[in-house]
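Researcher: Please predict.
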Amino acid sequence: GLLNAKFGTQWHVLNDKEAKWMKDAFDYFIVPKRKESPNYPYITKGDFNADGKGDIAAIVTDSTKNNFRVAIISESDNIQLWEEDIMIDAALSTISKSTIEGMDGEKTKKVKLKGDGINIEYFEKASFVLYWDKSSFKRIQTGD
C-alpha cells in the first residue's frame, strides 16, 4: 500500500504476532476494545490534521522489528512518521476534538485540539497524545 510506495518495504503495520503481547495483557487490554475498533491497537482513524478529511494513524515497524513509529496518513496520501517514544506495546486510539490537559516538561498545559488527537498508551504505563498545531504534530504527556 501507501507505506511501500513511500518508504519501500522497510515499514509495515505491526500485527499481533510481532507485538508479542503477554496473553493476560492482550485479553484484558486489547480484546474488549476490538469489539468497537477491529484494528485496535495498531490503527485508528480521525481528522488528525484538522483539514476536515479522514486520516489514519498506524503503528508501524521496520524489517528488523526493533524500530517503531506512528505513521500518520492523510487523505491526500501524505505520510508522516512520528519517531519519538514509540515502543512495541503502543496502543493507538482517537481522541475527539476537545481540550485536553497534560504535561509539557514540568508544566501542566491545556491544549485545545484543532483536529482529533492520536492517543498513544502503554498498558499500565505512560500515555501521550499527538495533536496538530497549525503546521506540524506536537506531543503532550497525558499519563505516567
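Model: The chain is about 15% helix and 45% strand.
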